[in-house]
Amino acid sequence: MTYCLGIITRYGLVFGADSRTNAGVDYISTYQKLFDFSDPGQRVVLLAASGNLSMTQAIVNAIQQDLKLMESENIHTLPTLYDITRYIGNKVRVVQEQDRPWLERDGIDSSCTLLLGGQVRGEPPGLYMIYRQGNFIQATPETPFLQIGETKYGKPILDRTLSFDTPLEAAAKCALLSIDSTMRSNISVGPPVDLVMYEANSLFVKHQVRLRVGDPYLMQVRKQWEISLRQAFEQMPNIEWGYGEENVLMESGVGNGESGIGSRE
Amino acid sequence: MTYCLGIITRYGLVFGADSRTNAGVDYISTYQKLFDFSDPGQRVVLLAASGNLSMTQAIVNAIQQDLKLMESENIHTLPTLYDITRYIGNKVRVVQEQDRPWLERDGIDSSCTLLLGGQVRGEPPGLYMIYRQGNFIQATPETPFLQIGETKYGKPILDRTLSFDTPLEAAAKCALLSIDSTMRSNISVGPPVDLVMYEANSLFVKHQVRLRVGDPYLMQVRKQWEISLRQAFEQMPNIEWGYGEENVLMESGVGNGESGIGSRE
């Protein structure tokens, strides 16, 4: 399994990804899922990949080949982030066309989903999600984050704390906690965790970190977070139990007293 | 969708459930999913249901009928919680046998999953999850909670804060936040929220509450929680960005400098 997320705020972008892949529970390995295709000073292009590893590796390879062969259309020459996204969507389509029938006839899932974010000089930063079909959507100020892979465990913290106005450092912490929550609840998502913070208009990836298994910072974050959650419980107002109310849960019970259910004396 | 959870600690049980059901996004309604079949002073029996509504209603109805007709085997006469669980598992099997083929031929999901918890006089409290196949598992001190329905959004908070030693009031707050997180992230899970707290050996459901849409307590909990989470962010140690490190994300990029990718001057 995989968990990657991208966040866009008015201050820039945050990308995060785990590195665990598995083919069943008895074959677990580590693969990088977050890639930096930036051309420093000109453009920042970050790509995160989830889904079938042979598919996502083929896509990354195709992007790299176009760069190496200096094809006229490549990730460094295309004029806008939108064009880059469409270009990668086309790579997804080529790879799907090529391999999908062979996987399908053995019942293997060939799906893959990508996140693309960054900034091209002269444009504002952008964040996109590219589907296996090659089409894509863009994150907006109303929905300033996109997730791929095992998305649910890490979503509540984003829903509750993130907005387009969140400072970049806070967004990065939020991303890390979102990934840590996912790792805590799903063993097939695991470290190293790659984290990138990109300040809008810098056109340069200055802040990145790889947190490996047992990283002291990662352990400190987890410990501090659990302490904070417990403190938050203590601050929570006590539940006002409905002593006075009728026993609402027995309303649909049979008899309501006739058979003893629902009586409360 | 549905979200129900049961928690067992050394101090007793907590049950929580939302009340929203949907047949597609254009048909949403409210149904109670948490039922109290207790015989106060003798036994406490709580049942939470998820899955196909016609199935779960048929199961609840079958239980109620046996009580009404005073069948020799009913939820008030069976000697142990284990026997009650097996009895309900059998009800699940009867209902599945009866209706499943008719649903399947129209491609309708007939699955249902139940949580059963409580205490029979003379026994310790127990908590079980009953599968659609009628078999079941029991919660243990190592895994003191069970969830059914839309389980993922609400799991991180349980994983991080709950243990068999958690005081009952804290476990109830944890359950409420787990449900609230799920409601926040999945619109098909919604209020009213039913919450029950059962103190071990009291053989009596004393603490229960139904929190309706816009309930001031529910709103206060959500607000306070979001404030606490933001405070927790502030307490989190700052990320130590890997300024000194090589750009690890470009390790697998082409060229590493040759094409400009990976260079960091």
TrEMBL record, chains A, B:
Entries under InterPro entries matching the protein: Ntn_hydrolases_N, Proteasome_sua/b, UCP009120_prtse
The protein, known as: Proteasome-type protease
Native source species: Thermocoleostomius sinensis A174
GO molecular function: peptidase activity
SUPFAM superfamilies linked: N-terminal nucleophile aminohydrolases (Ntn hydrolases)
Keywords: Hydrolase, Protease, Proteasome
CDD domains named in the record: proteasome_beta_bacterial
Higher taxonomy: Bacteria, Bacillati, Cyanobacteriota, Cyanophyceae, Oculatellales
GO terms, biological process: proteolysis involved in protein catabolic process
Pfam families per UniProt: Proteasome
Residues forming coiled coils: none
GO cellular component: proteasome core complex
